[in-house]
Amino acid sequence: MECTIDWGGPDGMLFVARTGSGHVTAMDGAPDGGGHNLAPRPMEMLLAGTGGCAAYDVVLILKRSRQAVTDCRVTLTAERAETDPKVFTKIHFAFVVSGKGLSQTAVERAVKMSHDKYCSASAMLAKTADITHSIQILEA
Protein backbone atom coordinates (compact mmCIF):
# COMPACT_ATOMS: atom_id res chain seq x y z
CA MET A 1 0.00 0.00 0.00
CA GLU A 2 1.28 3.43 -0.86
CA CYS A 3 0.10 7.00 -0.52
CA THR A 4 1.71 10.31 -1.50
CA ILE A 5 0.86 13.56 0.25
CA ASP A 6 1.62 16.95 -1.37
CA TRP A 7 1.41 20.30 0.38
CA GLY A 8 -0.75 22.85 -1.43
CA GLY A 9 1.68 25.71 -0.84
CA PRO A 10 2.68 28.47 1.55
CA ASP A 11 -0.75 30.16 1.70
CA GLY A 12 -2.29 27.55 3.96
CA MET A 13 -2.31 24.02 5.24
CA LEU A 14 -4.06 22.21 2.38
CA PHE A 15 -2.60 18.80 1.56
CA VAL A 16 -3.57 16.50 -1.31
CA ALA A 17 -3.26 12.73 -0.90
CA ARG A 18 -2.87 10.40 -3.86
CA THR A 19 -3.48 6.75 -3.06
CA GLY A 20 -1.85 3.74 -4.61
CA SER A 21 -5.25 2.75 -5.98
CA GLY A 22 -5.37 5.98 -7.98
CA HIS A 23 -7.67 8.13 -5.85
CA VAL A 24 -7.18 11.72 -4.73
CA THR A 25 -8.47 13.41 -1.58
CA ALA A 26 -7.72 16.66 0.18
CA MET A 27 -7.06 17.47 3.83
CA ASP A 28 -6.89 20.91 5.45
CA GLY A 29 -6.38 22.45 8.84
CA ALA A 30 -8.60 24.66 10.93
CA PRO A 31 -8.35 28.42 10.33
CA ASP A 32 -6.76 28.91 13.76
CA GLY A 33 -4.01 26.47 12.69
CA GLY A 34 -3.19 28.13 9.38
CA GLY A 35 -5.74 26.22 7.32
CA HIS A 36 -8.72 27.49 5.39
CA ASN A 37 -11.25 24.74 6.23
CA LEU A 38 -11.34 23.56 2.61
CA ALA A 39 -11.34 19.85 3.39
CA PRO A 40 -11.52 17.38 6.30
CA ARG A 41 -8.81 17.40 8.97
CA PRO A 42 -6.31 14.52 8.85
CA MET A 43 -7.67 13.05 12.11
CA GLU A 44 -11.21 13.22 10.70
CA MET A 45 -9.94 11.23 7.71
CA LEU A 46 -8.47 8.65 10.09
CA LEU A 47 -11.78 8.36 11.94
CA ALA A 48 -13.74 8.16 8.67
CA GLY A 49 -11.40 5.49 7.35
CA THR A 50 -11.91 3.46 10.50
CA GLY A 51 -15.68 3.74 10.14
CA GLY A 52 -15.44 2.70 6.50
CA CYS A 53 -13.29 -0.29 7.40
CA ALA A 54 -15.77 -1.46 10.06
CA ALA A 55 -18.88 -0.86 7.93
CA TYR A 56 -17.29 -2.75 5.03
CA ASP A 57 -16.61 -5.71 7.32
CA VAL A 58 -20.11 -5.72 8.79
CA VAL A 59 -21.84 -5.65 5.38
CA LEU A 60 -19.53 -8.33 3.95
CA ILE A 61 -20.00 -10.62 6.96
CA LEU A 62 -23.79 -10.20 6.84
CA LYS A 63 -23.90 -10.89 3.09
CA ARG A 64 -21.78 -14.01 3.52
CA SER A 65 -24.15 -15.08 6.30
CA ARG A 66 -27.00 -14.80 3.79
CA GLN A 67 -28.63 -11.94 5.69
CA ALA A 68 -30.80 -9.63 3.54
CA VAL A 69 -28.91 -6.45 4.48
CA THR A 70 -30.02 -3.36 2.53
CA ASP A 71 -28.22 -0.50 4.30
CA CYS A 72 -25.54 0.12 6.88
CA ARG A 73 -24.61 3.37 8.57
CA VAL A 74 -22.04 3.81 11.31
CA THR A 75 -21.57 7.08 13.16
CA LEU A 76 -18.31 7.41 15.05
CA THR A 77 -18.02 9.73 18.03
CA ALA A 78 -14.51 10.24 19.36
CA GLU A 79 -12.68 11.98 22.16
CA ARG A 80 -9.02 12.96 21.99
CA ALA A 81 -6.32 13.49 24.58
CA GLU A 82 -5.93 17.08 25.73
CA THR A 83 -2.13 17.09 25.33
CA ASP A 84 0.12 16.22 22.41
CA PRO A 85 0.04 13.79 20.82
CA LYS A 86 -3.73 14.23 20.84
CA VAL A 87 -4.55 10.58 20.19
CA PHE A 88 -8.06 9.23 20.24
CA THR A 89 -8.90 8.09 23.78
CA LYS A 90 -12.53 7.02 23.27
CA ILE A 91 -14.38 6.00 20.12
CA HIS A 92 -18.00 4.91 19.95
CA PHE A 93 -19.33 3.15 16.83
CA ALA A 94 -23.13 3.53 16.50
CA PHE A 95 -24.28 1.07 13.82
CA VAL A 96 -27.69 1.32 12.16
CA VAL A 97 -28.22 -1.72 9.95
CA SER A 98 -31.29 -2.17 7.76
CA GLY A 99 -32.58 -5.24 6.04
CA LYS A 100 -35.35 -7.77 5.67
CA GLY A 101 -35.68 -10.06 8.67
CA LEU A 102 -32.16 -9.42 9.93
CA SER A 103 -31.08 -11.59 12.82
CA GLN A 104 -30.03 -9.59 15.89
CA THR A 105 -27.48 -12.30 16.64
CA ALA A 106 -26.02 -12.13 13.12
CA VAL A 107 -25.63 -8.34 13.26
CA GLU A 108 -24.05 -8.47 16.71
CA ARG A 109 -21.71 -11.21 15.49
CA ALA A 110 -20.71 -9.19 12.43
CA VAL A 111 -19.89 -6.11 14.53
CA LYS A 112 -17.94 -8.24 17.02
CA MET A 113 -15.99 -10.01 14.26
CA SER A 114 -15.11 -6.69 12.64
CA HIS A 115 -13.82 -5.34 15.93
CA ASP A 116 -12.08 -8.49 17.18
CA LYS A 117 -10.65 -9.90 13.96
CA TYR A 118 -10.95 -7.99 10.70
CA CYS A 119 -10.85 -4.18 10.99
CA SER A 120 -7.17 -3.25 10.95
CA ALA A 121 -7.92 0.43 11.54
CA SER A 122 -9.92 -0.11 14.72
CA ALA A 123 -7.33 -2.64 15.92
CA MET A 124 -4.66 0.06 15.69
CA LEU A 125 -6.80 2.71 17.34
CA ALA A 126 -7.72 0.30 20.14
CA LYS A 127 -4.10 0.63 21.31
CA THR A 128 -4.91 4.13 22.60
CA ALA A 129 -8.71 4.36 22.63
CA ASP A 130 -11.49 2.65 24.53
CA ILE A 131 -13.76 1.42 21.72
CA THR A 132 -17.47 0.79 22.26
CA HIS A 133 -20.33 -0.18 19.94
CA SER A 134 -24.09 0.15 19.77
CA ILE A 135 -26.39 -1.52 17.25
CA GLN A 136 -29.82 -0.56 15.94
CA ILE A 137 -31.57 -2.82 13.44
CA LEU A 138 -34.27 -1.43 11.14
CA GLU A 139 -36.66 -3.49 9.08
CA ALA A 140 -36.47 -2.54 5.39
TrEMBL record:
> Which Pfam families does this entry report, sorted A to Z?
OsmC (PF02566)
- Lineage, top-rank taxon, reads Bacteria
InterPro entries per record: KH_dom-like_a/b (IPR015946), OsmC/Ohr_fam (IPR003718), OsmC/Ohrsf (IPR036102)
Q: What is this protein called?
A: OsmC family protein
Which species does this protein come from? Parapusillimonas granuli
Q: What is the lineage of its organism?
A: Bacteria, Pseudomonadati, Pseudomonadota, Betaproteobacteria, Burkholderiales
